[in-house]
Amino acid sequence: MVETRFDELKRYVRFGADDARALLAFRAVAEPHFVRIAREFYERIREHEEAHAVFTGEEQIERLQRSMVRWMGRVLSGTYDEAYFEETRKIGRVHVRVGLPQRYMFTAMALMRVSLEDVAEKEAGAAAKVVRTALTRILDLELAMMLESYREDLAEQARRRDEFEAQSLRSDLARTLLLHEAALDASPSLIVGIDPRGMIRLFNRAAQTITGYALEDVFGAPFVELLVADAARPKDAALVASLLAGTLTQLADESLLKTRSGKVRDVRWSFTRTDDGGPEDIVLFANGEDVTDTRAASRQAHQHEKLAALGTLAAGLAHEIRNPLNGAQLHVAFLRRALEKKLPEPELLEAAGVVGDEIKRLARLVSEFLDFARPSALTNKRVVVQALVTRTLELTGPLAAQAGIVIVADVPPQELVIVADGGKLEQVLLNVVQNAIDALSPGGSGRIVVRVRRHPRDVVVEIEDDGPGLPSPNAPVFDAFFSTKPTGTGLGLAITHRIVTDHGGTVGVESRPGRTCFRFTLPIGNESAALEGESA
Amino acid sequence: MDAKPTHRPLVLVVDADARSASLLARLLYTDGYDTEVTTDGAAAVARLTRNPVPDAIVTDFHLAHADGLAVARYARSRGPLMLVFVVTGHPNALSSAAGPLDEPLHVLTKPLDYPDLLARLVAALGAPSRA
Question: Which residues from B are below 8 Å from A315, CB to CB?
């Protein structure tokens, strides 16, 4: 019988039946640690931008944590046959597909090794040394097999590059073309060349950087299917078809670009149809500008201007409203006093009480409006995000429990420190959690999760509930005076939005029946610089 | 019968809105305080030059001729322990106008919560005997 690649590698590191038995026995004591190890592993990745870039969201990270737990179970399963080998290769291919740099494959394996050896040291007793040896062998076998996928990928890339170069050299203009290519690569715009069948034939450096694809990944791949996000695909497919058919020669198009890792960016394309050529010649140039950041910035600048004007208005209005309210309130106090003394008729007293309550409500509206439109300046200090969450839960827990609602914190074990106005952020958390409680209360039960995650540059806080959801997924909840509650002023989330954006963060919401999730991010930033700026 | 001597502290009410001012004075009177009313800052300062010095002042911030802070400062020079409440529709503007020497400054936001004001007066001056 011919020795397989896997058997050959096992023989090389002398991985035998004794190792398999040691690993299986170790599994019994190691299993309780799997979830913790997986969690620590993904916490670490959050600190590294390029490794973190392959993630699309928290749900995916949770899924990956679960598959890492399964992976540890598999590594300690005691059975290491061809099916095992195939499974490992599959995992390797997934990592290649999402574009995880190879160096993270090695360093990730080092993390796993350290964690598992640590468990062996503590739990395996006299067998610790044997287990460590077996671990070293199996983990390096894993690594070797996963790296096979990278090798296959490299081979594929090389094949495509050869094809590409062979094609280039066929032309007498090869040198000129190369010069043009250098010019294309210097451009900050995405430049994509498309052949008559809609396949990519040119893909400049900016396009590679922004999409995360290498030229070899996209060469010969269909432009629309690969690069246009689902939401914009039908429209763009029709436009590109018209351009390729020659019914259109020039077109500007705002679209959504899908990157390799599945993220979506705003891109403004301008398409230019050139003269017809051969089946592999470029007939259509797509020149794209990534406007994701400028759009966000201009939205923010616009918002700031609006708020400044609103602040001036609010201050004047507050004065004009509070003065008459003051007179009204005093007269109500006087009326109540007189009624209590002379004519203790409950209906009249109640009527005076209603007027008094309405005046208080108006006064609260004015206060909240001022809070929103002209907030006091931030007083930034070092803030531990977990402490904010703990405090919010202490304040809202008892009320929630009364309504049959459970609130749980899901925060990373390692302290997350940001420079921010703790009091205002507490206001944000309280406000959003209170909204969730209000949404769940009519049902008499429910669950709220306050989740904190570290990303390379931000802290992400999510408040998720399993309530009925917003009336519409696009409800303008952050707009002033939008409210779904009968007694709400409609300013709570507008103030929340203001506080978070004043911190340089972002706010968003996703909602469908059964799951509503408010998410805000806060930049981690440079701690000492932020504090210096504060004292200057 | 109550053998205690009558104790009726004096409160000066300063507000450009004469109706509100006299109504507040009337409520305070019912609750056992003697009151005087002026409707502009300069008149308030003039009143403070004379005896008896009030035990407390409730003054609006926005006043003609001298604002509530000026009244408060002058009042302090007459009686350093005098209780001064400044009432305003825009507390942020007041805090930025006030300096450290104005402390302790009791700022009340409009609309004035009368029961709250009364409780503070009682806490600082003791319970007065009713009219």
Answer: 90, 92-93
